[in-house]
Specification:
343 residues; mainly alpha; Growth Hormone, Chain: A; 17 helices; 0% strand
C-alpha cells in the first residue's frame, strides 16, 4: 500500500513536470495501477479492521471521497485565481499526498489479526450495543489471520459464494447513474437543456454538493438501516426522479430534480461495496480483485453511452441510463432472502 502511494505521488509529480506528450501519457498510465495499490488496498484494510461494520466504514469512506470531489474544483479555482495553472495544481496534489503518505508510514496502525477482532456491536463500539444491520443480513466470520495467499481455486470458489456475483453486477449497474451520469451532466445541460456554460457549471456543482449531502446523511443512517432495504428504496426513488430530470423542460426544476436524484443515489456505492466485502469475510484482497476485474468489464457501459450519443444523440444515450434503477431493483437482494442464502 505504501509503495502504491509513493508511485501515485510520483505519477502526479511526473504529470506536473511533463515536457512531452509521451511523458504525460506514461504518467497518467502509471497513475491508475498506483491508485489501485494505494486507494483500493487502503479501503480493504479499513474493511479488515471492522468485521461486521463494513457498511458504516464504507459510508464514511464515500463521504471522504465526495468531500474530495467537491474540494478538487475549488483547489483548481484557487490556483487559477493566484495566476497558476494545471501544473502547480498537480504539484500541490503531489505535496499533499506526500504528507499523507508520510503520516501513514509513521503513525499508521499495524494490521491486527482478524481472528482477534471483537464481534461487531459488542463492548464500547461506536455503533452502540445494537448489532449492525448488515451483520444480520450477511453473518461475518473472521479468518484465521495467517496471511496466507489464496490459491486460484479459492478465488474461483469465492466467486461462487452467495451474493458475490450479485454485488459485482450491482456495482457496474449502479455506476451508470453515478460516475457515468456525472461525466455527461455538463455537456447534457448545454447541448440538450440549452443551458449556458455557467449554468452547466452550476449544475455540476449541484450534482456534487447534493451527493456530498447524501453521503453525510447516509453516514448517520448507516448504523440504523439495512443496506439492501435502503438500496431498494433509493432505486425506487431514482426510477421516478431520473425520467423527471430528463423530461422537465424548466431548467431550475431540472436542477432541483438533479439534486434530489444525487441525494437519493448517494448510498448506492457504499451499500453495494460493503455488501461485497461482507460476502467475503476475511478475504478483502479477493474482493478488491473482483471489483477491479468487474470494473474492466463494466467500462463497456460508458463506451456504449458514448457510441449511442454519437449515433443517435445525447438525449437517447442518457435516456438509456433509465434502465439502471430498474436493474438495481431486480438484482438487489432482499434482507430476508440474503440471510437465508448465507445460512
Amino acid at each position: 500500500m505504501l509503495i502504491g502511494g509513493a508511485a501515485l505521488i510520483g505519477s502526479l509529480a511526473a504529470v506536473a513536470l511533463a515536457n512531452s506528450y509521451l511523458v504525460l501519457m506514461l504518467a497518467f498510465i502509471a497513475f491508475f495501477p498506483a491508485s489501485g495499490a494505494f486507494v483500493s488496498l487502503t479501503q480493504a484494510a479499513l474493511m479488515d479492521t471492522a468485521p461486521g461494520r463494513q457498511q458504516q466504514r464504507m459510508a464514511a469512506w464515500n463521504l471522504a471521497g465526495s468531500f474530495g470531489a467537491v474540494i478538487g474544483p475549488l483547489l483548481l479555482a484557487g490556483v487559477l485565481a493566484l495566476g497558476g495553472g494545471w501544473r502547480p495544481t498537480y504539484l500541490a496534489l503531489a505535496a499533499a499526498g506526500a504528507i499523507t503518505l508520510a503520516a501513514a508510514a509513521v503513525a499508521g496502525p499495524a494490521r491486527p489479526a482478524l481472528g482477534q477482532a471483537k464481534p461487531a456491536g459488542t463492548g464500547t463500539s461506536a455503533a452502540g450495543p445494537a448489532q449492525p444491520i448488515l451483520a444480520e443480513v450477511i453473518p461475518v466470520e473472521p479468518d484465521d489471520g495467517d496471511g496466507r495467499r489464496p490459491t486460484a481455486r479459492e478465488v474461483v470458489a469465492a466467486l461462487r459464494t452467495a451474493g458475490v456475483a450479485r454485488w459485482l453486477v450491482l456495482l457496474e449497474i449502479s455506476d451508470l447513474l453515478l460516475d457515468v451520469l456525472t461525466g455527461y451532466i455538463g455537456i447534457y445541460l448545454v447541448d440538450v437543456a440549452h443551458a449556458s456554460p455557467a449554468q452547466a457549471a452550476i449544475g455540476v456543482a449541484i450534482r456534487l454538493g447534493a451527493g456530498l449531502a447524501g453521503d453525510a446523511a447516509f453516514v448517520a443512517l448507516s448504523r440504523r438501516v439495512a443496506g439492501p432495504a435502503v438500496l431498494r428504496v433509493s432505486a425506487a426513488a431514482a426510477l421516478v426522479l431520473y425520467p423527471a430530470f430528463l423530461l422537465v423542460p424548466w431548467l431550475p426544476a431540472r436542477l432541483a430534480i438533479l439534486a434530489a436524484l444525487s441525494f437519493a443515489t448517494a448510498c448506492w456505492y457504499p451499500v453495494i461495496q460493503a455488501g461485497l466485502y461482507a460476502s467475503l469475510p476475511g478475504q478483502s484482497g479477493i474482493a478488491v480483485f473482483f471489483a477491479s476485474a468487474a470494473g474492466l468489464l463494466g467500462a463497456a457501459g460508458p463506451l456504449a453511452v458514448g457510441l449511442i450519443a454519437q449515433g443517435a444523440g445525447l438525449t437517447w444515450a442518457l435516456a438509456g441510463l433509465a434502465v439502471a434503477p430498474i436493474l438495481v431493483l431486480v438484482v438487489a437482494p432482499r434482507a430476508a432472502r440474503a440471510a437465508r442464502v448465507v445460512r
